[in-house]
Amino acid sequence: MTHPKHKEHDFSLKLRQASVIEGFADYVRWQRSLRNDRPDASVPDMAPVSINLDLTTACNFSCPHCVDSGIINSGRQLDLEQVKKSLDTLKAHGLLSVILLGGGEPTLYRGFGEVVRYSKEIGLQVGIVTNGSKLQRVTDVAHLLGKHDWLRLSLDAAIQETFDKLHRPKTGVQLNDILENAREIKSQNPDLSLGYSFVIMWEGLEMNGVPIAPNIDEMQKAAGLAARYGFDYISFKPCLIRLPDLHKETLLDSVDRQKQEEIINEVKKRIDETKDAAGDRIKILESVNLIAMIHHRVHELKKQPKTCHMHIFNSVLAPDGIFHCPAFRGVESAKIAEADGYAGEENFQKTLENLRRSIDCFDAQKECDRIACFYNDVNWWIENFITSETPVASLETAEDDNFFF
């Protein structure tokens, strides 16, 4: 059973955009060739449509719910010239967007502003996810960003006490200061999409045995703050836990059915109350896995096709290497190259061959059976399209808009 998606999360629509559809068609033809006893068929010579670019592992917060806590503050960062060379190579092969986030706080990277400038100079859409502690560095480049670019602040709270408990900033960062700075950026560049990110924590959540402070009763107030400070939207998502034994992100894992029902009912109630109170003052976005959670579909998101087709359309470039999935950031089984794997044509071609082997060998049915996969619906859509008799040419082309995955 499917449920309505926000346009931002309709990945099958994104794959049919005018600038993407030929690459998608080439991938379908390749997969069909492989399945028709042509193992020598060449993987399409294409870059990911979108990459998560993790500039540094450094972070000035110590969030107990951070799924990347095992890899942050390792002292590693990407080389700026290597980043530029990688972006050049990827752009030449079809890269359309880059998201600066993950594995650390991107604004702590010394060359943060230059990466943003260069990404825009070569025509990429840019998304920035930040904890908000160094927003001046975003302010310095905000004028370069346009209507297809966005800035999202990971706040997860509506009051300072909860903000401190959930983020444990190493300096005296004030939530109100972050909101004021965000409002200033929006006033300087109204075209930039500004988002307030809120990961929902409920009673009983723990990460590595450490209790996580609940914030579920602050959802409505956070939406009010988002509206007051000029945000375009507030996005809600459920808290994921990274399994320490398997290094995988999961949702509602090892939670008995009665407790699941209690959690789901409470979350749904709070979402409904927040929407009613917000009215049309602020756009409220729900993540793919939150929608699945509310509609009792989490178990469906954990059932994957054998082939993870999103391998080829999205990847993570991080100081520790290139990974085929954000949920497996830093996990060796999902690593397809070292951090220089996109830096230059020769390296790119080697990484493409590694990607082919990964697509062939990585069994998503097994490896992702506890992950509430963000790409579950689109992976199944691609799988069903490949196995159907539907001609690739019959796909209806969509207008270019949002290239973020």
Walk me through what this model shows.
Its cofactor is [4Fe-4S] cluster. It comes from Desulfosalsimonas propionicica. One of its GO terms (molecular function) is iron-sulfur cluster binding. Residues 45-270 form the Radical SAM core domain. This protein has 405 residues and is of the alpha/beta class. It has one domain: TIM Barrel (Alpha-Beta Barrel). 36% of the residues lie in helices and 14% in strands. It has 14 helices and 14 strands. Strands 11-8-5-4-3-2-1-12-13-14 form a ten-stranded mixed sheet. The longest helix has 22 residues, at 257-278. It starts with 10 loop residues before the first helix and ends in an 18-residue tail after the last helix.
Can you identify the CATH superfamily? Aldolase class I
Classify the secondary structure makeup into a structural class.
Answer: alpha/beta
Strand order of the largest sheet: 11-8-5-4-3-2-1-12-13-14
Overall pLDDT level: 93
Largest pleated sheet = 10 strands, mixed
Basic shape: globular
- The low-confidence parts are none
Number of helices: 14
- Give the C-level CATH assignment: Alpha Beta
CATH fold description: TIM Barrel
Q: How many structural domains are formed by the residues?
A: 1
User: What is the total tally of β strands?
Assistant: 14
**CATH architecture assignment:** Alpha-Beta Barrel
Head-to-tail CA distance between termini: 22 Å
Amount of helix: 25-40%
